[in-house]
Amino acid sequence: MITKKYIKNIVISFFCIVFLIFINIDNDIFAVENILIDDKQILIFCEDLALDLVFINRGQNLVSDKGLLSAASSVVKNSMYGTSYFGAVSLETLKHKVAPGLDVNGTFLVSGLAQKINILTMGAFFEYGKGECNIVDKFENLAPITGNGDKKYIGGGLLCCLDFFDKFYLDFSGRKGLLNTNFYSFDLTYFGSYAGLRYKLDFTKKLKLNVFSKYFFTHQDGQKDGTLYTGEVLNFDDINSQRLLCGLSASIQASETFSFYSGLSSEYEFLGNIKATFKNKGLAIQTLKGYTEIVEFGILGKSNSCNAELSFQKYLGVKEGSAWTFKISFAFFDYIERFLGYSLEKFENEKIGRVSNNFSFSKKECFLKLIGIIKELNGRITHKNLRKGYIVAFDFSKTFQDSCLDSTEVCIYIRDLKGNNVNIEVVSNNNLLADEVSKKIFQILNKDRKEKKGE
Length: 455
Fold this sequence. Notes:
Layout: H1 2-23, E1 31-33, H2 43-77, E2 84-96, E3 101-117, E4 120-137, E5 145-164, E6 168-180, E7 187-202, E8 207-220, E9 223-227, E10 233-236, E11 239-253, E12 258-269, E13 273-278, E14 282-287, E15 290-302, E16 306-317, E17 321-330, H3 334-340, H4 345-348, E18 354-359, H5 363-376, E19 380-385, E20 390-394, E21 410-417, E22 421-427, H6 431-453
Antiparallel strand pairs: 1-5, 2-3, 2-17, 3-4, 4-5, 5-6, 6-7, 7-8, 8-11, 9-10, 10-13, 11-12, 12-15, 13-14, 15-16, 16-17, 18-22, 19-20, 20-21, 21-22
């Protein structure tokens, strides 16, 4: 076990080094075509600063959405080590009419460590975002101004989620980092926080409703005497954003793998004011304050280790525009842990939560039957091995609501006996769940045995 942990730490360090090399690739400088000839045209710099805020907020949205969800799901998948690894990546193409023409293509990433203690999931994460932006401004009786460049931020933070009865969720996160702006001579510090409340309602096994309310705060430092790539000076104030997002979404399960969803939400920006002066003679003001209605449609694909989602959002209001988003969330080192092997130590050391019985089946036949029974009990299998004779599963809370949490694991041992017989032992660190699951399994196996004999 010690050797495995050392190998695991080496692999993690390798990925961290690759990640740090990747994020330190230099980005392009914000380039502006045509020389400013009128004070009105300095608005393009305010629009770009507004774009910085939108860009950072998109990363915060990922943390509050797939970041939290992947952290919560990964603690179950990797619970054998106590600490789990999670990640989420979002590829987005965004068109906003904050300016006459504002396009963003961005990649956002969240990765970190999480741990669950009873109903509390805690995590620490790194975040990274990089994107390309284009702005086009047209002015009456003046030459048009266009700008383009890259943006990049890197930061980190903490998150936590409280899960009440697998229905109510309280989410929190805090983050801080550096924004590499489109201007030549400085980086900016940003920090922010998030708090959210979610409620999940299952109308049927296939139709589900999610109601949520989220509050976001973001601060972006201002800058005095910041030098542009042209050598000219720009000053701008601190930028603060306070957003309240409320909405609901409905999803329908089309198959075990795919589901479709649609959502409607409303966002109100309380602040979002940007003020800048250029050459100490002109003042420009841009604001994101106001309502934005968001309509969303998407398709979600799920597997045991990875979720993939493609969605389209339409924005109506202050942030009028649209966005295509592709997201992936997963437990980063789940496959590495499978390569290293799964530890059954916590089940082998269990003294109380053990129930066993013998049955007249072959080992393979019983193994396949148990997989089917676990699905009937709404359980999810995380690890199985026919040769070694065990199946590990969790998520039995839907069937045994009063006996366990959805993260409580059960291990089922299948041992060969003489005469084409097997011994089945159900083990859990929750002895009440071990009793409940074993009763159901033994009942179904006894019924199958009688049918096999023609009784």
